[in-house]
Amino acid sequence: MSEPSFEDAQRELERIVERLERGDADLDEAIKLWERGEELYKLCVGRLDAAHGKIEELARRVESARP
Amino acid sequence: MVPMKVEAVQYGERKVYSVAAFNRGVADWLTRLPSVWVEGEVTELRRHARWQSVFFTLKDPSDGACLGVTILRSRFDALRLDLADGDRVHVLGRPDLYEARGDFRLRALSIERWGLGDHLAALERLKRKLTDEGLFAPERKRALPRLPRRIGLVTGNDAAAKRDVLTTITTRFPAAQVLVAETYVQGPLAAQAIIDALQELCSAPDVDIIVLARGGGSFEDLLPFSDERLVRAVASCSLPVVSAVGHEQDTPLCDLAADVRASTPTAAGRLVVPDVTELHERLDRSHAGLERGVRRALERARQHLDQLHVHLQRAPALMVERKRARLEHAAGRLRALSPRSTLERGYAIVRSDAGIVRTAAAVIAGDELEVEVADGRFGARAE
Question: For the domain B144-277, what is the CATH code?
Answer without folding.
Answer: 3.40.50.10550
